[in-house]
Amino acid sequence: MNARTVFIAEDEPLARDVLRDFIYAHAGLRLVGEAADGASALAQIDRIRPDIVFMDIQMPEMTGLDVLRRLTVVPDIVFTTAYDQYAVTAFELNAVDYLLKPFTRARFDAAVARLLETPGSSVPAPDVIGGALTLAVDRVPSRIERILVRDRGRIFPLSVNEIAYLKADAKYTAIAARGHTFLVRIGISELEAQLDPGRFIRIHRSALVNLDFVDSMRADDQSQLEITMRDGAVLTASREASKVLREMAI
C-alpha cells in the first residue's frame, strides 16, 4: 500500500514540529508540503493536491475554515486547534477528525488509523459549507480562562489568573505558575491571542508577562526595561515593548 501524501497548514512553528515528527514516524504517511498562513496553504494545497491536510483553524491572513471554503479540491481534513468550541463545526464540514492541542502521539495515531480507512472525504455542498463556516466564526472564543497542563503524570486545569509569565522553549511554551514551570505543546503566539492584552504583555518575541505578577521595572544601560517578577525572575523587554510599558505608566 502506497503512503498517503500529507500537507501541514499551521502557523505555529512548535505545532508544525510536532506534526512533522509524528508524520515522519508513520510509515503510512508522506509529508509533501507545509504552510504557515492560510493564503499560502490555499495556493499550495490546490497545486499539490495532497491526500490529507492537518490544518489549524486559526491562522494569519485566512482561517483554516476559509481555506476549506475556497479549495477547488478538498482532501481529507483533520483540523487541529487548542479550542474545543470548533469540534461540532469541524464534523459539520466533513472533517475526518479533530485534534485538540496539545494532543498525544496515541491520539495522532488514532486519527491516522481513521484516515487510512477512509477512501476520501466527500465535499459538502457550497451552501452547507457557507452556513457552517458562518456558525464557526460566531463561535470564536474571545478569551480562555484555564489551560490543561501536565505535571508528574497528572493533568490538571491551570487558571490563567495563576500564570506569572510564559516563555517559548524549543518545542514547547514554558508557563511559570504556582512556583513551578509547566511545559505545553501550544505556541506562545496562539496562547497570546486568547489572553487578556490588558494583563498579558508581549515583552519580546519569546516572552509574555502577566502585569499582576510584576514586582518592578527599571531601565538598563541600553534603556530597555528589566522586569523583576515576584518570584525573582528578571526578564528584559525589547525596545519596542519598553516604550509601550513606559507609555502605560501614569
From TrEMBL:
Molecular function in Gene Ontology: DNA binding; phosphorelay response regulator activity
Residues with PTM 4-aspartylphosphate: 56
Ranges of residues in domain Response regulatory: 5-116
SMART domains per UniProt: LytTR (SM00850), REC (SM00448)
Pfam families given in the database record: LytTR (PF04397), Response_reg (PF00072)
Claim: Phosphoprotein is one of the keywords in the record: yes
Name used for this protein in its record: Response regulator
